Amino acid sequence: MPGLVALLRAPYTASCSVNAGSRLPSRASSRGISARRSAVCAGATPRSQQQNLKLSAGRSSRSRSSALWVSSAAVLIKGGTVVTHDEERAADVLCVDGLIAAVGVNLEAPAGARVIDADGLLVMPGGIDPHTHMELPFMGTVASEDFYTGTSAAAAGGTTMIIDFVIPAPQQNLLEAYHTWRGWAEKSACDYSFHVAVTWWDQSVSDDMGTLSRDFGVNSFKHFMAYKNAIMCDDETLVNSFTRCNELGAIPTVHAENGELVYQLQKQVFDAGFTGPEGHPMSRPPEVEGEAANSAIRIAEVLGVPLYLVHTSTEDALEAVKRARGEGQRVFAEVLAQHLVIDDSVYRNPDWGFAAHHVMSPPFRPKEHQKLLWQGLQAGHIHTTATDHCCFCTPQKAMGKDDFRKIPNGTGGVEDRMSVLWHHGVGTGRLTPSEFVAVTSTNAAKIFNIFPRKGAIAPGADADLVLWDPKGTRTISAKTHHQKIDFNVYEGMEVTGLAVYTLSQGAVVYERGELKTVRGKGRYVERPCYPPYWKNQALRNSLGAPEGPVLRAPYTGPVANVK
Question: Per-residue confidence at 535, pLDDT binned at 50, 70, 90?
Answer without folding.
Answer: confident
